[in-house]
Structures are given as structure tokens and as C-alpha cells.
């Protein structure tokens, strides 16, 4: 090639890049190969952005020179905002500011609700604590929403989209947590309420309440009842579901009394009402070989030693239906569940949502809760058991979980912190019953649990050797290909008339 040809080729390449850049400004796309499509925009987000009729201003407060793992969050957030701006026809406007470089900006960020976090960073040979900001303020007119901290393990799209929807929605639906039959108070659901408050008015509801019409609630939640439902309360529930209301029920058919170490039946009348609808809960305990552990203290000489003992009454549920409510869930821990079955007719649709493992068993009352019991394979021969299910009728939808307290934090000074999937199961269920925009698909985009102890020994060994041998194998393959290419080149050079 002569000089003129080189110039022409260079101009063509530059021109092609310019054309691609212009096209990419208008038509933005990327290929997502991650598990669960973590970088793919959901239909729910697209619909919300396309329906925006006012500008939304996003002020992202990020520290400069973040460590690589955290800087990845910043880049992802920036790319997400660019895509949001394109999908909303320019109604998403954003800017990034560094609070660490200006005391006035830092004070503004903190006063807005952006939470700084102390992070240990290595500087040369020293480990220093660095105050970092990774939050955002989302504004529309005089309303604003705050994302205090963008969790690297969470779903950034869910946080941002729900904040935008909360600003753009004019009227939030009502969710009622039924009280009066021994249920935990609304204050005992700190994590669940915190998630639901984003898009709903969450209130306590009473089936005997004559002040508020029970039909004002989009969904009623009955969780953990322990006393009898009156005939009037059950009549109100009948009226509610017949009018098209949706119901989420989490209740124990049997109770494991940890004080007496005895199993007890829980009778509230609600189980008979559900059975008439086609949802049967048997008064039996489900035990599962795939389970959690309890702490057992035993005296050893002068000291007491605490050890963890696997307790099959606490199944670890990893078997979920391919359904929007359970999509993305990895594992929930529940205590003392009972089996659910369908006893209705073809006019209703029954969908199991969560099941125990194949190594499960059923225990009928009376039952002794013996933590020292030597469990054998004979105890787990009943197969998979349904512990959460959906019933759809012509008028309404009912979701039933056969454990009443799986998402309860409790009240007082030290409420327990629940694992994310327990909360997501309850919140996803209520949101699916109350809202059909599809935002629940975003909540569980991130991987929440990958316990290696649940893998078989053979799979652990396979992964270990794969990690060890694969890099060497790739180097060998590259070497063979390169050697073959050079050999082919030498062969071409040996031919008469070869021109480079």
C-alpha cells in the first residue's frame, strides 16, 4: 500500500467510528450475558420511564478515586442513567458530584440523607479509613427521594426505578395488615414495611372496623394469627375476596413450643375458611434434611459449650416455582411449616410457589421437639412438600404460606435481622397481588446466596480442579493455535511467487 492508500483507509476508519458514535447516541444497546440478566432493562422500568411527563433530576453523590469494586458501582450507575435518559426522551437529567472535595457539598449531601460510609483502603504500606459517598438524590418538582447508599450487592435498577415511580405516582394503594387475632403488630415488620412504604400506604386494618371500608385496601395481609376469628370477621373476608380483593395469608397450622418442647395445634377458624376456598393446611409438621441449625448448650466439666445442631424442623427452602413472586429467590429459612394441598375444583388455579427438598418427612401430633434426636433417612421419605402456594379464582387471588412469622423482625431494642429472601418472598407476594407493573422482578436481580456447603463433594472437587486447570488449558490452546499459524505462514513463504 502506498501513502495515499494509507490515508484513504485511515479516513474510512475514522468515518466509520463517527457514524457508529452518532447511531449509538440514538440507539443504545448492550448484550447481557450475566445470570438473571442483571444488566438488562426490565419492561417495568421501560414503562415507567416512557410515561414520565415531567423532568426528573438525579444528583449522584460519589467519592472520586473509589476502590475498583466500588468504582464498578459508579460506572454501572452512570451507564444506567444514560440509558434511563434515552428511554425517557430526556426526562431523566443527572449529574455527578464529589462531596469529599467540598465541605459545603458534603454538608448538603448529608443533610439530604446521603449516608457516608467508612471504608478501609490501602495506601502504599498503610491501611487508612476513607469516608466514601455512594448515594443519590432524585427530585421532581418539589418532591424528592433519597438513595442513601447504593449497595453493591443489591439491585441498582430497583432502587432507582422505585424512587422515580414514587415521585411520579399520584395516589398510592392501601395495604392493610389485619389485627385483632393475635397477629404481630405492624411495627414488628420493620424490613417488610420499609420496602412496602416506597409504593404503598401500609396500615393496620381491623375486620370489625366500621370507620374505614375494608374494600379501600388493595390487599389484606393476615400473618401469624393465634386466636379465633369471629364469624363476623370471616364474613368480612368473604365479602372482601368476592368483591375482587386480594389476600396474603401466613399462618401456622401447628406451633413448635420451644418452652415445653412440644408440638401444638393452632386453631383459629381461618384454616376452615381457607379449606372452603380450596387451600388445605394439614395439622402436621414438615421436617427436611436440608435445614438450618440451632444452638445447643451442654456442660463440659466446669464450662458450658455451645454447639450448632442441625434441626429439621427449620427447613431451608431452595425449591421455588418459576414465577414472578419467587423469581430470583435463592433460599428462605422457615420454622415449623405444615404441608399445603389443593382441594378445590377446576374453576380455580392452584400454583405451588415454594417446596421443601425431596428428603422431607411429615410428623403428626403429638410431636416432641428433640434437638438431640438422631435423624435417619427413614424420617425423610415423604418427598417434596408445598409450604407456599397461590390460588387464583375468578374474583380474587390468595397467597398462602404455612408459617406465620418467617418475615417478622420483632419489636423492642434488638429486633432480629432477617435474610433478604425471607423479606423478598413476603414483599414480592404483596406487590404481585397489589401492583402489576412488574417491579418485583427487579428486587431479586442480585444473587443473594450461594452456600458452598450445599454442593455435593463431587461438584466441589470438579469446581476446584476446573479453576486450577482451565487457565493452563487456555494457555496451551493459545500456544497450539499460534504455533499452527506460524507453521502455515512458513509454508506459504516456501511457495514460489509468495508476496507479503
Describe the structure.
By secondary structure, this protein is α+β, with helices and mostly antiparallel strands. Strand 11 and strand 12 form a beta hairpin. It has 11 helices and 23 strands. It folds into 4 domains: 1-30; 31-167, Glutaredoxin, CATH 3.40.30.10; 175-454, Rossmann fold (3-Layer(aba) Sandwich), CATH 3.40.50; 458-492. It has helices spanning 3-26, 43-50, 68-87, 103-112, 156-168, 190-196, 231-242, 270-277, 420-434, 440-443, 457-494, and strands at 56-62, 92-97, 117-123, 126-132, 134-140, 143-147, 174-179, 201-206, 217-223, 246-250, 254-257, 262-265, 279-281, 284-288, 291-300, 303-317, 319-320, 332-333, 340-342, 349-355, 360-364, 386-392, 397-401. The protein starts with a helix and ends in a 6-residue tail after the last helix. The chain has an 8-stranded mixed sheet with strand order 8-7-9-10-23-22-20-17, with helices on one face. The chain is globular. Helix 6 (190-196) packs across helix 9.
Q: What's the arrangement of strands in the largest beta sheet?
A: 8-7-9-10-23-22-20-17
Rg result = 29 Å
Distance between the termini: 11 Å
The tally of strands reads 23
Q: Any guess at the CATH architecture of the largest domain?
A: 3-Layer(aba) Sandwich
Unreliable stretches covering 5 or more consecutive residues: none
The CATH homologous superfamily name of the largest domain equals Class I glutamine amidotransferase (GATase) domain
Assign a percent range to the helix content: 25-40%
Tell me, briefly, the overall form: globular
- Main β sheet profile: 8 strands, mixed
Number of domains: 4
CATH topology of the largest domain: Rossmann fold
Proportion in β-strands: 25-35%
Structural class: alpha+beta
Q: What is the CATH first-level class name of the largest domain?
A: Alpha Beta
Q: How many individual helices? A: 11
Mean pLDDT: 85
Amino acid at each position: 500500500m502506498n501513502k495515499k492508500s494509507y490515508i484513504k483507509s485511515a479516513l474510512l476508519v475514522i468515518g466509520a467510528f463517527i457514524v457508529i458514535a452518532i447511531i449509538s447516541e440514538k440507539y443504545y444497546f448492550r448484550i447481557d450475558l450475566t445470570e438473571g440478566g442483571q444488566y438488562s432493562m426490565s419492561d417495568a422500568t421501560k414503562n415507567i420511564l416512557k410515561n414520565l411527563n415531567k423532568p426528573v433530576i438525579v444528583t449522584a453523590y460519589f467519592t472520586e478515586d473509589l476502590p475498583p469494586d466500588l468504582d464498578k458501582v459508579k460506572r454501572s450507575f452512570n451507564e444506567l442513567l444514560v440509558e434511563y435518559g434515552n428511554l425517557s426522551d430526556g426526562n431523566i437529567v443527572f449529574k455527578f458530584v464529589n462531596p469529599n472535595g467540598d465541605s459545603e457539598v458534603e454538608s448538603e449531601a448529608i443533610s439530604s440523607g446521603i449516608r457516608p460510609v467508612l471504608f478501609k483502603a490501602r495506601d502504599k504500606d498503610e491501611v487508612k479509613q476513607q469516608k466514601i459517598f455512594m448515594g443519590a438524590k432524585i427530585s421532581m418538582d418539589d418532591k424528592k427521594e433519597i438513595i442513601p447508599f447504593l449497595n453493591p450487592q443489591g439491585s441498582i435498577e430497583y432502587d432507582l426505578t422505585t424512587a422515580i415511580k414514587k415521585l411520579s405516582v399520584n395516589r398510592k394503594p392501601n395495604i392493610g395488615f389485619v389485627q385483632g387475632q393475635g397477629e404481630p403488630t405492624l411495627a414488628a415488620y420493620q424490613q417488610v414495611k420499609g420496602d412496602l412504604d416506597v409504593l404503598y400506604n401500609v396500615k393496620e386494618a381491623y375486620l370489625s372496623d366500621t370507620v374505614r371500608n375494608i374494600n379501600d385496601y388493595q390487599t389484606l395481609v393476615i400473618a401469624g394469627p393465634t386466636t379465633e376469628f369471629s364469624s363476623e370477621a370471616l364474613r368480612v373476608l368473604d365479602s372482601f375476596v368476592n368483591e375482587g380483593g386480594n389476600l396474603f395469608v401466613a399462618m401456622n397450622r401447628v406451633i413448635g413450643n420451644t418452652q415445653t418442647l412440644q408440638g401444638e395445634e393452632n386453631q383459629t377458624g381461618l384454616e376452615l375458611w381457607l379449606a372452603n376456598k380450596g387451600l388445605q393446611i394439614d395439622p402436621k409438621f414438615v421436617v427436611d434434611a436440608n435445614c438450618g441449625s440451632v444452638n445447643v448448650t451442654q456442660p463440659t466439666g466446669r464450662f458450658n459449650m455451645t454447639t450448632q445442631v442441625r434441626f429439621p424442623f427449620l427447613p431451608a427452602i431452595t425449591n421455588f416455582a418459576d414465577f414472578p413472586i419467587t423469581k430470583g429467590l435463592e433460599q428462605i429459612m422457615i420454622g415449623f411449616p405444615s404441608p399445603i394441598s389443593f382441594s378445590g375444583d377446576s374453576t380455580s388455579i392452584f400454583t405451588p410457589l415454594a417446596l421443601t427438598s425431596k428428603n422431607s418427612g411429615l410428623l403428626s401430633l403429638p410431636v416432641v421437639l428433640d434437638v438431640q434426636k438422631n435423624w435417619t433417612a427413614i424420617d425423610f421419605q415423604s418427598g417434596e412438600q408445598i409450604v407456599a402456594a397461590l390460588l387464583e379464582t375468578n374474583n380474587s387471588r390468595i397467597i398462602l404460606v404455612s408459617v406465620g412469622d418467617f418475615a417478622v423482625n420483632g419489636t423492642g431494642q434488638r429486633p432480629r435481622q432477617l435474610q433478604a429472601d425471607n423479606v423478598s418472598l413476603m414483599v414480592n407476594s404483596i406487590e404481585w397481588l397489589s401492583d402489576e407493573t412488574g417491579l418485583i422482578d427487579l428486587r431479586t436481580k442480585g444473587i443473594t446466596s450461594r452456600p458452598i456447603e450445599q454442593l455435593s463433594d463431587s461438584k466441589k472437587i470438579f469446581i476446584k480442579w476446573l479453576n486450577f486447570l482451565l487457565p493452563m488449558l487456555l494457555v496451551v490452546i493459545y500456544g497450539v493455535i499460534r504455533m499452527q499459524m506460524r507453521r502455515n505462514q512458513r509454508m506459504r513463504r516456501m511457495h514460489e511467487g509468495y508476496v507479503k
